[in-house]
Design brief:
With about 325 residues, this protein is mainly α. The protein is built from 11 helices and 4 strands; from the N terminus they run E-H-E-E-E-H-H-H-H-H-H-H-H-H-H. It has helices at about 20-35, 65-75, 85-115, 115-130, 140-155, 165-185, 200-210, 220-225, 230-240, 245, 270-290, and strands spanning about 5-10, 35-40, 55, 65.
Amino acid sequence: MAAPLELFCWKGDHGLPSVDIDCLTVLAYAKFAGAPLKVHKITNPWRSPTGTLPALKTREEGSISQPSKIIIHLRKQKYNADYDLSAKEGADTLAFVSLLEEKLLPALIYTLWIDSKNYVDVTRCWYAENISFPLNFLLPNRMHGQQLEKLRLVRGDPVLEAGEQLEKELYRDAFECMTLLSQRLGSQKFFFGDSPSSLDAYVFAHLAPLLKIKLPNGKLQQHLNSLNNLQQYCANILALYFPSDTREAPGRKVHAQPDSSDFDNEPHKRRNQILSVLFAVGAMLGYAILTGIVTLKRERPQLKTSSHEEEEDEDED
C-alpha cells in the first residue's frame, strides 16, 4: 500500500482548521476530493520540507508548495473535485479564482497584516504566542514584510504605503467581489450544485477567516455579515468537513500542542526545540558579527617592560 501524501500547514484556531488562507485552500480541496493526507499542523515553516507552508511531500515530485501546484498534483493522483464540471463551469472557476486574487485577497492582506490595530492586537499576537521562542520574535515581523511585498506586487506599486485612500480602494473592490459571490451562489449549497469543487475551496478559504476571527477593525467582516448566504455557506463547510475544528471554536487555546502525528511527539520534540533555539541564536550572532554590530578581538600577552601600553590585533573576520 502506497504511503499517504504528507501535508504541512499552519495549525488552526478560532474554529478554523488553519489560520492561513493558502493552507485552508489545500485542506478544503483535499477534503472535497477525498484525498488521504497525513496532515502535520505546525507553527514553524522552517520545519516543512520546503521551508514554506503549505507544503506537500510526495514520492513522485518531491515537495511542492503553492496551493495551485498542490491541487494539480492531487488531480494527477485521481483526487479531482472538478471531475464532473462542464467546460463552462471550468471557465467560471478560473474567472472567479482570478476575481478572488485580484479583488478580495489584497483587502484580506491589508486587514490582517497591514491595518495596525488588527495586526498588533490579533495577527502578530497569535503568531507570537504560538511560535516557539526565540523564533516568535523574528518570524511575525518577517511575515509582515512578506505580506506587504505581496500586496505591493498584486497592486503593481513598489512604493505602496498604507493609508486611508488605499484602504478605501481595497475595501471597495472586496465589497464588490463578495457581493458578486453572494449573487452567484444564490440559494445553492455549493457554487456548482450539491457537490463542492475547487472554486468552493478557494472561496471558503478567503471568507472563513473573516467569518471566524474577531478583528478590532472589522469593515470587511461587517459586509460579509450582511450576506447571509455566504455566512451559511462557510458555516456549512466547517460543520460538514471540519467538525472537530468547529467544536473547538468557543475556547481559544493559547500555546496548544499542534495537531500532528509523530512529527512533533516526544522524545524528538525536546530535541527539535533545543536545536531551534541554538539555530536561531547562532543565526542572530552570525548576523551581528557580519554586520559589525559585534566584533571579536584578541589581546596579545603583555610583555614585562617598563611600558604600560596595550596593543591589539586587527579585528578578525
